[in-house]
Amino acid sequence: MTQPWWRSAVIYQVYLRSFADANGDGIGDLAGLRSRLGYLAELGVDGIWLNPCYPSPQQDHGYDVADYTDIEPDYGDLAAFDALVADAHDRGLKVLMDLVPNHCSSAHPWFRAALAAGAGAPERARFLFRDGRGKDGELPPNNWRGQFGGSAWSRIIEPDGTPGQWYLHFFDAGQPDFNWRHPDVTALFDEVLRFWFDRGVDGFRIDVAHGLYKHPELPDWADSHSHFNAHAWNQPEVHEVYRRWRRIADEYGPERELTFVGEVWVPTVADLAAYLRPDELPQAFYFDLLQQPWQAGLFRSSIERAFDGIGATGATITWTLANHDVHRTVTRYGIVRPEPYHDSLPEDVSLVRPRGEVDPALGERRARAATVLLLALPGSQYLYQGEELGLPEVLNLPDDARQDPTWTRSGRLDPGRDGCRVPLPWTPQGPNYGFSSVFGSSGGRAMFAPWLPQPDWFAKYAVSEQLQDATSTLSLHRQALSMRRELFPASEAADQSITWVDIPGRDDALAFRRGDITCVVVFGDEALLLPEEWGEVLLASLPPQEGRLAGNAAAWLRVQ
Ligand code: GLC
Ligand code: CA
Questions:
Q1: Do residues 243 and 264 touch, judged by C-beta distance below 8 A?
Q2: Ligand 1 atom closest to 265 (CA)
Q3: Which of 91, 166, 284, 421 has its CA 20 to 30 A from that of 354?
Q4: Residue 6 class from Cβ within 10 Å (0-12 exposed, 13-18 middle, 19+ buried)?
Q5: CA distance linking residue 446 with residue 421, whole number of Å
C-alpha cells in the first residue's frame, strides 16, 4: 500500500532570512529562495519547511507574528509566495509553513487593542493579563521563568499612564502568549489554516506545539529552575486543538495529503507519542537524538527509545539533528573539551548549544557520518540549511552584531542562536559570498551587508566550490539523498523496523540492517574492519581503505 509522502520525506528547513537575497538588501527573501529551488531539487529533498515569513517586527525573527495571513514586506508579498509555491510544486517539492499559535507579536492588532482597552476589558481576555503581586502590584503574578531567561511576565503602562497589569510571554516581551481558553483564538487559527491551505501549502510545522494552554490558575511552579514547567506546558487541553486542526486538514480530501509536524518538547517519549495519536498530529520532531553527544551507546539507546515509544504506535518517526535553535552539528560533535555554562542557565542550553574547545575537522567528519546514519533510518528526516555544506556554528560573532533576544535576556550568558543563522555562502567571492544578488550592489560590492556578518572562512564552504568537488559534504548529501530514494523507495510498504547487528569487541561502533542494507557508524577513532559478509560498500562518509572504515565515519553496504 502506498503511504502518504510525509511519512518518509526528507524536508529541508529554509531559514528564509539567511538563505538567498534577491534584491541586495542583506536579507533573504522569497524571490531569492525561488531562484534557488533548482539547487534544492538537485540536492534531492522532497520539500521545504519555511520559517515564519509573516509580517513581524522581527524581535524573534518572525516568531513574533503581527498578521497571520500576509507576507513580511522584507521577504516579498502574497504574489511572491504564490509564485514560490507554484514553482516548488512544478519541481515536485512540497511546501510547509511555520505556524505560531502559542503567541503573537506585541504589534498584533489584538494586543494593541488589549493595551488600549484597559484592565478588565474584553480585549485583554485574548491574552493572559493579571494583576501583579506585592503591595502595589510591583511583583509578577507568579514565578514562571521565560524560555529566553528572566521572568515570563512584563508589566505594562496602562492607558492612563500608571504602571498596571502584567502579561505572560514565555519568550520575548514582544511575544505575548494567547489565552487559548478564549473562543476568538480558536477561530483565528481555524481561519489561518484555511487561508494557507487554500493557497496550496502542503502543511505546517507547529511552533511550541506543547504550549498554547496554561494551567487555568497559573500557579507558581515549585521548581522554578527546572527546564520543564509542568503548569505551563503540555496541558491536556492542547490535544483537542490538534484533533480540530486534523479535521480541518481532512476537509481538503485525502489527495492533498496535508501534514502537520509539531515542535513538541516534553519530558518523555510517551508524552511525545500522545501527540501522534491517529486523529492528532501526523508528525512531531524526535529531539532526543539531537541532544545526544557523539557516543555509540547514547545514540543507540536514543534510537531504540524512538522505535519503542513512537514506531511501535504505528506513527512515523521524524528524525532531525539540527535546526535554527541549536548549534550546528559540526560544532556540537567537534567539541573536544567541554566547558559548562553558568549554572543559572537551564540544563537544556548545554544540550543544544554545548560549548568548549572545538576541532572543526573532527566535527565535520562526525557530522558527515551522522548524516549517513540519519538518512538510513526509517521515517522522515529534517535537514537544516547549511548542514549540507558542513558549516560550523559561527561562535565568535561580535557582541554588537548579535540579534537573538536570548543573548540579552540571559544576561549574555547564553550565546543564543545567531551562530547557526548566518547567511549562506553560495560563492567564494561576490556580494556577501553570493548570498545577495548583484542587483542592488555598487562596484561589485554588496550595498548592504548581510543582516548577520559572515566570517571570511565562509568562502571555503561555498556551494559553487562544493559542487565541483566529489568529496565535499554537499556531494555526500546529494549522493546519500539520491541513494536513499533508490534503496528505500517511499512507495514500498512501510517497514519501519531496523535490526541491530553486533560488532564484537567494538562498543564504540553501531550497525543495523534495514532490508538488505547495513548501515555502520564508527563513533570511536579506531578504524573498523568491515566483515566480508556485509557485502559491498554503496556509500561512505569517508571511503574505506583496504576494507577498513575509518573512525568517525559511516557507510551503507549491501549483501550481494
Ligand atoms: C520555537 C522556535 C524558536 C522561537 C520560539 C518562540 O522554539 O523554534 O525559534 O524562538 O519557538 O516562538
Ligand atoms: Ca532581500
A1: no
A2: 7
A3: 284
A4: buried
A5: 19
Assign a CATH topology to domain 109-168: Oligo-1,6-glucosidase; domain 2 (3.90.400)
CA–CA separation, 42 and 55 (whole Å): 31
Closest by CA to 261, choosing from 236, 234, 281, is 281
Atom of ligand 1 nearest to the CA of 417: 9
The grid coordinates listed for 306 are: 524512538
State whether residue 418 is helix, strand or coil.
Answer: helix
What's the pLDDT score for residue 560? 81
Residues surrounding ion ligand 2 at CB below 5 Å? 21, 23, 25, 27, 29
Residue 82: what pLDDT? 98
C-alpha–C-alpha distance, residues 249 and 493, integer Å: 24
Residue 267: pLDDT over 90: yes
Q: What is the CATH number of domain 5-103+183-219+229-474?
A: 3.20.20.80
The rounded mean pLDDT for the chain is 95
3-class SS at 174? coil
Q: Name the DSSP letter for residue 133.
A: B
Closest atom of ligand 1 to 170 CA is 6
Q: What is the mean pLDDT of residues 240-244?
A: 98
**Burial class of residue 508 (count of CB atoms within 10 Å of its CB; 0-12, 13-18, 19+):** middle
CATH 3.40.50.720 fits 496-558, yes or no: no
The predicted-structure confidence for 33-57, as pLDDT tens digits, reads as follows 999 999 999 999 999 999 999 999 9
d(CA 181, CA 171): 20
What pTM did the predictor assign?
Answer: 0.97
For 172-227, how does the pLDDT look when each residue is reduced to its tens digit (9 = 90+)?
Answer: 999 999 999 999 999 999 999 999 999 999 999 999 999 999 999 999 998 755 67
The ranges assigned to domains in the chain are: 5-103+183-219+229-474, 109-168, 496-558
Is 30 in contact with 76 (CB distance < 8 Å)?
yes
Q: Stretch 421-442: mean pLDDT, rounded?
A: 86
In angstroms, what is the span from residue 381 Cα to ligand 1's centroid?
19
Neighbour tally for 314: CB within 10 Å: 11
Distance 453 CA to ligand 2 centre (A): 15
Pick the atom of ligand 1 nearest to 102's CA: 12
Distance from the CA of 552 to the center of ligand 1, in angstroms?
A: 32
**Ligand 2: distance of its center to the CA of 443 in Å?**
18
Q: Mean pLDDT throughout 315-328?
A: 98
Segment 342-371 shows an average pLDDT of 94
Considering every ligand atom shown, identify the ligand nearest to the alpha carbon of residue 59 and give its number: 1
Q: Distance between CA atoms of 392 and 455, rounded to whole angstroms?
A: 11
| pLDDT of 479 higher than 70 | yes
Contact 16, 51 (CB under 8 A): yes
Question: Strand 47-50 and strand 10-14: pairing?
Answer: parallel
- Tell me, in angstroms, the distance from the centre of ligand 2 to residue 81's CA: 14
